[in-house]
Specification:
- This protein is mainly α.
- Helix content is about 45%, strand content about 5%.
- The protein has helices at about 5-15, 25-30, 35-55, 70-80, 95-100, 100-105, 135-145, 190-200, 215-230, 255-260, 265-275, 285-305, 325-330, 335-345, 350-365, 370-380, 385-395, 415-420, 440-450, 455-460, 465-470, 475-490; strands at about 20-25, 60-65, 85-90, 110-115, 495-500, 500-505.
- The strands form three sheets. A two-stranded parallel sheet has the order 1-2.
- A hairpin with a 2-residue loop joins strand 5 (about 495-500) and strand 6 (about 500-505).
- Helix 3 (about 35-55) runs antiparallel to helix 8, helix 12 crosses helix 17 and helix 19 crosses helix 22 (about 475-490).
- The longest helix is centred in the middle third of the chain and has 25 residues, at about 285-305.
- The two termini are about 45 Å apart.
């Protein structure tokens, strides 16, 4: 964010001349997981560019490289004899605990200011939450729309006459569809230096080569404007589509920038709303994009703080299987997973439907441990942070939080993938076969999951038709489904570690 609350508060308290901004680069934070190298480049380059911009604006900056944040702050306080510190509350549960102890740790007063990277901090749609109660994102979203006066007419009705246009936004990508060119940024000298450092360190997955993300406010704002002008109009119809030829489609790719503060959420919302008012984009696309920012993103952050710290270990379906090695090397003959995992390894990105309906869907059907799945997301995605991964993966994607985040498990057979993508056409597996040597694993894993959890799922109203369909499957076919699922899962190679750029795996 351009106006960091800690900088503003410290300047108001002591004046610009007495202010020194400390930026800590923590090796412990960088090394916690073998992060996607493009993610490391993004974080480190953005931090260093931000420090440079503060210096250019006349601020004194102490850029500290330390083992961890506490050590870096101790070094700063000792070196500059600081009398007080100001910091913004972290979006991470663990870091916020650390912030609460800083006054004692450092021996100087530390003021922790509210986090301004989220809108839900200034307004809470459900202020009086109840333990165990389920809250709907749609209700949350409408309250946020009303509070911030987004896509509302003067009489208070939703623009276009509807609150939600999701039903219109489920089209597969047409054949030979021409997509707009992506908005990329050539690395400057500072970013190139960071790329060389990350490459030399040898830590992490993926490669630094091809890094082309925004690392400054100005670049991020250019990316936002490019999305509004070139991709927003068709975002809605194809936001759920999946393609083997392109992973971006009409998606904004702005999540990385808003998650690290290069853009602000309301900035995205107002830009999209203005495009609708100016007749540059239809209501279905604008509402769909705004729902992702003002609805989904804020709701996920709200759920994170509502459910932590229990969310980290939630495992409502008792899933214990380790993360398969194919998620680390894309070595699978399932065409959809091969393409998406390869894309994530190479770029650190895939869009939300591929995350939910391919990766999380497979992991839930296969009974993968939610903690391992969330660590995989944190490792590979450039926009992944604790606050978004835990409720989105453990809660929504794997339904492991007993339905606190989402009202039903998001599971599907190969039929959904075939309808929304072009993956199945060139795959060795048949999306229409439930069993047999050519059957898609998504099919027998899906029906095996329903059989295994039939009693529990019957109590889930939104899954009623699928579960009732089990009655039409004869006993011999049920047995065959269970056998094929067990055989397939038993042959999955399990990820057991990562060392010097090579995964270690074993046959389960």
């Amino acid at each position: 964010m351009r106006s960091h609350p800690a900088v503003l508060a410290a300047e108001a308290a002591a004046g610009k001349d007495s202010l020194r901004v400390v930026v800590v680069e923590s090796s412990a934070s960088v090394g916690r997981l073998p992060y996607q190298r493009k993610k490391l480049v993004l974080m480190l380059s953005a931090m260093r560019h931000y420090a440079e911009s503060l210096c250019a604006a006349g601020y004194s900056v102490d850029y500290v490289r330390a083992r961890d944040f506490s050590q870096g702050l101790r070094e700063h306080v000792r070196k500059w004899k600081s009398s007080s510190l100001f910091t913004m509350a972290s979006s991470s549960f663990q870091t916020r605990l650390l912030q609460g102890e800083l006054s004692t740790t450092l021996g100087v007063p530390v003021t922790v200011l509210p986090n301004t990277q989220f809108l839900v901090g200034s307004f809470t749609p459900f202020p009086e939450t109840q333990s165990g109660k389920r809250y709907l994102m749609e209700n949350f979203y409408r309250k946020m729309r009303r509070h911030f006066s987004v896509l509302l007419e003067p009489n208070g009705d939703p623009s276009g006459g509807q609150w939600n246009y999701d039903a219109e936004n489920r089209k597969p990508l047409p054949k030979h569809y021409k997509l707009p060119p992506p908005c990329f940024f050539h690395p400057d000298a500072l970013t190139t230096e960071v790329m060389e450092e990350v490459e030399k360190a040898g830590h992490g997955v993926g490669k630094v080569g091809g890094f082309n993300l925004a690392v400054t406010h100005e670049q991020a704002e250019t990316a936002l404007q490019d999305f509004i002008e070139n991709r927003l109009a068709e975002f809605g119809p194809y936001e759920d589509a999946m393609s083997s030829s392109d992973g971006r489609l009409h998606h904004s790719l702005l999540s990385s920038y808003v998650n690290i503060g290069l853009l602000e959420p309301l900035q995205l919302v107002r830009a999209a709303e203005q495009a609708y008012r100016a007749g540059k984009a239809p209501i279905s696309s604008v509402e769909g994009f705004i729902r992702q920012v003002l609805g989904w993103r804020e709701y996920i952050y709200w759920q994170y703080w509502r459910q932590m710290p229990d969310l980290r270990t939630a495992n409502g379906w008792a899933a214990k299987r380790p993360m398969p090695a194919m998620f680390w090397n894309a070595d699978t003959d399932m065409n959809c997973l091969h393409h998406v995992i390869r894309r994530v390894i190479d770029s650190g990105y895939s869009h939300h439907i591929e995350r939910l309906m391919l990766i999380c869907n497979f992991c839930m059907l296969a009974g993968i441990d939610p903690a391992e799945v969330s660590d995989w997301f944190l490792t590979f995605y450039v926009d992944a942070f604790d606050w978004v991964v835990l409720p989105n993966v453990i809660g929504m994607g794997l339904n492991a939080d007993s339905g606190q985040t989402a009202t039903k498990p998001y599971i599907a057979s190969a039929n959904y993938i075939n309808r929304m993508s072009d993956y199945c056409g060139s795959c060795k597996y048949d999306p229409k076969q439930r069993t047999g040597p050519s059957a898609c694993p998504f099919n027998y894993l899906y029906w095996n999951f329903l059989l295994k959890h039939e009693k529990k799922l019957r109590a889930q109203p939104r899954l009623g038709p699928a579960v009732l369909g089990l009655s039409r499957i004869p006993a011999p076919e049920r047995h065959k489904i269970e056998q094929e699922a067990e055989r397939y899962l038993g042959c999955l190679e399990s990820f057991t570690g990562y060392e010097n750029g090579t995964i270690k795996q074993q046959l389960k």
